[in-house]
Amino acid sequence: MDHHGLKGLTVVVTGAATGMGRAEATELAARGAHVWIADVAEDPGRELARTLTDRGGHAEFFHLDVTDPSAWAGLRDALTEGPGVVHGLVNNAGVSHRHGIVDTADEDWQRVLDINLSGIFYGMKYLAPLLKAAGSASVVNVSSIAGMTGYFAAGYAASKWGVRGISKTGALEFAPWGVRVNSLHPGLVDTPLLWSGAPEFVHESLRSVPAGRVGTPEEITDAVLFLLSDASRYVTGTELVVDGGMTSAGLYHRLLSGLGDQEA
């Protein structure tokens, strides 16, 4: 398949009812993939599946709590009884938490790690037989720029660095099966998750983005499609950063912008 050749493939997208996952599922269905919308959000998930089906796509909803191994086992069984293979797994489900070590409650630490990291581990573990059966498949584990640099939020940073690491383990372990595993590292993306905290955080963060704006869910989707497609057939165990230059040049962009303001 080429970058647009996703027709007929079975792709599971977690956290697909809203935000980036919704954009990914929508575009995959439009490209002819059979999308499994996996989410705890029952109503919006089922509504999206109906909408995509009404548009002529192939989509179905599966209620999935990514922190529950038995739920993943249920999804595996449903997929085994259905298509019997999984060509793509997009581990997209995640939560944000913006507190440091001292201020992070024990229960919040566990919740963030359970959703952001354990959910990805379970996804790869339980769907591994179906990925292997496909003969050629791709796993996209959604991390963050918080997994590429020092970050102030304890649980979030730890979970996203963990996603980066376990993706490399998956790439090593799954390579003999023809299954690629990569981590995707979005920057500031215009989703409800980004705006779930104080808007001042976003506005201040934009000072470190050379592109000067937040990204769109559709721009992240383009990166996901690339990693799912045969266009990335020799790409595995690596990180794809989509952040408008924030991690590579954000520090000096901020400095130069500040100097420019002083000169003005």
Automatic annotation (TrEMBL):
Q: Which domain of life is it from?
A: Bacteria
What UniProt keywords are attached to this protein's entry? Oxidoreductase
Q: Which InterPro entries does the entry mention?
A: NAD(P)-bd_dom_sf (IPR036291), Sc_DH/Rdtase_CS (IPR020904), SDR_fam (IPR002347)
Oxidoreductase keyword on record: yes
Record EC number? 1.1.1.53
GO MF annotations, alphabetized? androstan-3-alpha,17-beta-diol dehydrogenase (NAD+) activity
The similarity comment for this entry is:
Belongs to the short-chain dehydrogenases/reductases (SDR) family.
> What name does the UniProt record give this protein?
3-alpha-(Or 20-beta)-hydroxysteroid dehydrogenase
Q: What is the species of this protein?
A: Nocardiopsis alba (strain ATCC BAA-2165 / BE74)
Q: Which gene encodes it?
A: fabG3
